[in-house]
Write a structure and sequence with these properties.
The protein is an alpha/beta fold. The protein has 3 domains: 239 residues, Vaccinia Virus protein VP39 (Rossmann fold, 3-Layer(aba) Sandwich), CATH 3.40.50.150; 168 residues, FAD/NAD(P)-binding domain, CATH 3.50.50.60; 142 residues, D-Amino Acid Oxidase, Chain A, domain 2. Helices cover 28% and strands 28% of the residues. It contains 17 helices and 33 strands. An 8-stranded mixed sheet has the order 6-7-5-4-8-9-11-10, sandwiched between helices. The protein has an 8-stranded mixed sheet with strand order 17-18-16-27-28-29-26-30, with helices on both faces. α9 runs parallel beside α16 and α10 crosses α16. The protein is globular and about 80 Å long. It starts with 15 loop residues before the first strand and ends with a strand.
Length: 625
């Protein structure tokens, strides 16, 4: 397979040949692991020469240990490290971060076949395979072992990976194919980047004993030593970045207050609590998920751009991450029944054609379908083609928010309207009309369209609230679909006798009441999109509904990160997580993971370009003078 046969965002997989059950790379002509005993070789070279069993035991409470690797391959090194982490890590809330790059990733089937060689790793291998991302370029964060292990996989060039990702490693696995067979992996720039992502005391080990590699590492400040290799390999090298004392990654200390218990705030609270961080979750409503996240149903949906730019990459990353994040709630709050993005008018049909011409996506993400196939998949007659997202579906967001907020480390303060944030003695004081101040080390504003009222800085922030009214359709009034259908409106399958459709897009109305006009708009546009959907009612009659207010920004991109003023000066201890618009259910899991990474000082799940595109200071309108 040549590079030119694959269009972004897809990435060409590894081409393997299997000899005696061992995978070899056709491209590089080398084995992925030792024919003698690959797992024992990994333990000898990487775990023992980085002294990981002992160092794992020394990770402080709520801390993190970061391993970085130069070639993911079959994932054997990762599974060996994960297994050792389980055996040696104290039960103190600490997290293992494993960061790896892979230019030619294995398919899921090849990954499974390779890892079947190691029965003792079977439970871990099965979890890895279940979370293994689609083969698309860029950064993939996998949350494993109930959050105790976080794997950041970068599918793409090694140099691109280390230039894009933000982390400091405690240990390096310099893996990959032999330097003579894969010279690009060992460029001087790659070794310089390894140094940039290391701290004093960082260790490394590698199969190779090539003098050029050893000298390059020594040139970057590593104290290197040659040591006996494993099995038939005579030598290998290991080293440490000069330091008298080995350091550790930062720990997650202190308390966090989150204002807003919608899907973004609730996901962030649960994410932090799973890392051992105490959280106070505050909302003016009397329970979680009672504002914009309180609809009976919500579709997991993004509209991927014709051009694969940072905006599209963020949407794709969020979609894939959210599917994995909601999987534990399958059948309860999450229903991955599939989603049809309908080519509902000529303009959308043309857009989809251009999208398909310019991009290549794995079928586990999406694939085109004609009208007949679309009708079969959705169980509803449709008259046009579309894009089928087999792993999308719908959620019960309000119920999910309540579930997320139920955790021993989350203190819920509902019915509390925060009026002011003030710094005092290195902490933040949140005053309200409900009683004594709430005091926290860090504060996250995830208050949706109420966010501008809470920002403790002067300036003009380019947020806007958009009113959205949904309509509740009794099951007997429609030909119920079995999958989500999206076009000018969306329609979900029925739950408890009702299907939700909508939503209106009212830029200027602040009316929180359900109106007949809003329902009429929803029903008329839904009928135009799906002729024959309605049974005898014809879409006429009085229907119930619900109104929420989306929070969007001037560029319709979300906001996540530390707050900054109009001069770009950071406001220590205050973060924003808002502006998710109508795609909050899709964006919230990944952005909650990202903000949690920032708060805990752990490796970021977003590459630099995407983190830059959602930075909070871009929403502040800078004034001249």
């Amino acid at each position: 397979m040549t590079d030119c046969t694959v269009r972004p965002p897809a990435i060409e997989p590894a081409e393997l040949v299997w000899r005696d059950g061992i995978p070899e790379s056709v491209r590089f002509g080398d084995v992925y692991f030792s024919r003698d005993n690959g797992l024992e070789e990994t333990r000898y070279v990487f775990l023992n020469h980085n002294n990981l069993p002992d160092r794992f035991q020394e990770v402080p409470p709520l801390g993190a240990f970061v391993i970085a690797e130069t070639g993911f391959g079959t994932g054997l090194n990762f599974l060996a490290a994960w297994q050792a982490w389980r055996e040696h890590q104290p039960d103190n809330g600490s997290v293992l971060h494993f960061i790896s790059a892979e230019r030619y990733p294995l398919t899921r089937d090849d990954l499974k076949r390779a890892l079947n060689l190691w029965p003792e790793l079977a439970p871990l291998a099965a979890e890895l395979q279940a979370h293994y991302p689609p083969l698309v370029r860029g950064t993939h964060r996998l949350v494993l072992d109930e959050g105790r292990v976080r794997l950041t996989l970068y599918f793409g060039d090694l140099l691109d990976a280390w230039e894009a990702l933000s982390f400091s490693a405690d240990a390096w696995f310099l893996d990959g194919f032999a330097p003579a067979l894969n010279p690009d992996m060992w460029l001087d720039r790659a070794i310089a980047l390894i140094r940039e992502h290391s701290r004093p005391g960082t260790t490394l080990a590698t199969f190779t004993a090539v003098g050029r590699i050893r000298r390059a590492l020594e040139g970057e400040g590593f104290e290197m030593r040659k040591t006996p290799g494993y099995g038939r390999k005579r030598d290998m090298i290991a080293g440490v970045l000069s330091s008298a004392v080995s350091g550790h990654s930062p720990t997650a200390s202190g308390t966090v207050a989150i204002i807003g218990a919608g899907i973004a705030g609730a996901l962030l609270a649960r994410n932090l609590a799973s890392r051992g961080v105490a959280v106070t979750l505050i909302d003016a409503e009397d329970h979680a998920g009672n504002a914009a996240s309180g609809n009976l149903q919500g579709a997991l949906y993004v509209k991927l751009g014709v051009e694969f730019n940072p905006q599209t990459e963020l949407a794709l990353s969020a979609l894939a991450f959210s599917q994995r994040a909601y999987e534990p709630y399958r059948g309860a709050f999450w229903h991955p029944v599939g989603l049809l993005q309908l080519a509902w008018n000529p303009q959308e049909a043309d857009r989809q054609n251009r999208f398909l011409d310019r991009n290549q996506y794995p079928e586990e993400i999406l694939y085109p379908v004609d009208a007949a196939t679309a009708s079969e998949l959705t169980g509803t007659p449709v008259s046009t083609s579309g894009l089928w997202f087999p792993n999308n579906g719908w959620l019960s967001p309000g119920r999910l928010c309540s579930n997320l907020a139920s955790h021993p480390l989350i203190e819920c303060r509902f019915g509390t309207r925060v009026e002011r944030l003030m710094p005092c003695n290195g902490k933040w004081h949140l005053s309200s009309s409900s009683g004594a101040d709430i005091i926290a080390d860090r504060v996250v504003i995830a208050a949706g369209h109420k966010t501008p009222e809470l920002i403790p800085l002067k300036g003009e922030y380019r947020f806007k609230a958009i009113r959205g009214q949904v309509t509740h359709l009794p099951e007997e009034t429609i030909r119920t679909p079995k999958a989500v259908i999206c076009g000018q409106k969306y329609l979900n399958p029925c739950q408890d006798g009702l299907a939700v459709t909508g939503a209106t897009f009212d830029l200027h109305s602040t009316d929180a009441r359900v109106t007949r006009e809003g329902n009429t708009e929803n029903l008329q546009q839904l009928s135009d999109m799906l002729p024959g959907l309605f049974a005898e009612s014809g879409g006429k009659g009085d229907f119930e509904g619900r109104v929420g207010f989306r929070c969007t920004t001037h560029d319709y991109q979300p906001v996540a990160g530390m707050m900054a003023d109009c001069n770009g000066q950071s406001l220590e201890g205050v973060y924003l997580l808002t502006g998710l618009g109508s795609k909050g259910l899709t964006y919230a899991p990944l952005l909650a993971e990202y903000v949690a990474d920032l708060i805990t000082g752990q490796p970021a799940c977003l590459p630099g370009t995407l983190a830059h595109s959602i930075r909070p200071d871009r929403i502040c309108r800078r004034r001249a003078g």
